[in-house]
Amino acid sequence: MKLNVERIEEDPRPQELGGWAHAAAADALDGAVQSLEGEITLRRADESVFVEGEVHAIVHRACDRCGSQVICTIGGEMDLAYVPANPGGETSREVFGGDMDVGFYAEGSLELGDVLREHFALTTPDRLACDLAAVSVAPGAKCQATLLAKESEEKPVDPRFAALKGLKLD
Ligand SMILES: [Zn+2]
């Protein structure tokens, strides 16, 4: 959803997480978004736009480790700032604190879908796998990683080790 930056109010205004937000989350998280919760507010100071709040998504997708269907809860607090893109000129990045993530908008409009995509890019672990606390294996699905690990335990690497294993067990 494109917003005309000039029309963004200076005092914080809540922004509904509508269809645009679900589409952006599905795109960023590469899965089926079951729910999207939280709230964001937008405010403007001169040409800078601040997006603050907290957004979580529950998404069904394939595990990066074993490929099983997993349910992930992704997201967190949001504290983003956007300034006009100014190619060739000085960036206003220095104006903001070191911890704040600063993005750019072009032609006087801010694409809120991009803002949410950036939020999820910042809050998604590099490897979204079933061994993370925020991830659980979907009902009916089995964690393939656990099965594979078991198989390799049972399968002796070398017949000589099998003999040793037998000794240990007795
Ligand atoms: Zn997995």
Short structural description:
It contains four helices and eight strands, in the order E-E-H-E-E-E-E-E-H-E-H-H. The protein is of the alpha+beta class and 170 residues long.
Describe this structure in words.
The strands form 2 sheets. Strands 2, 3, 4, 5, 6 and 8 form a 6-stranded mixed sheet that branches. A two-stranded antiparallel ribbon has the order 1-7. It has 170 residues and is α+β, with helices and mostly antiparallel strands. It contains 4 helices and 8 strands; from the N terminus they run E-E-H-E-E-E-E-E-H-E-H-H. The protein has one domain. 26% of the residues lie in helices and 36% in strands. The model has no long low-confidence stretch (mean pLDDT 86). The longest helix is centred in the last third of the chain and has 12 residues, at 112-123. Strand 4 and strand 5 form a beta hairpin. The chain has helices at residues 19-29, 112-123, 144-154, 159-169; strands at residues 2-4, 13-15, 32-45, 48-62, 69-84, 101-105, 109-111, 135-137. Zinc ion is lined by residues 63, 65-66, 68, 129-130, 143, 145.
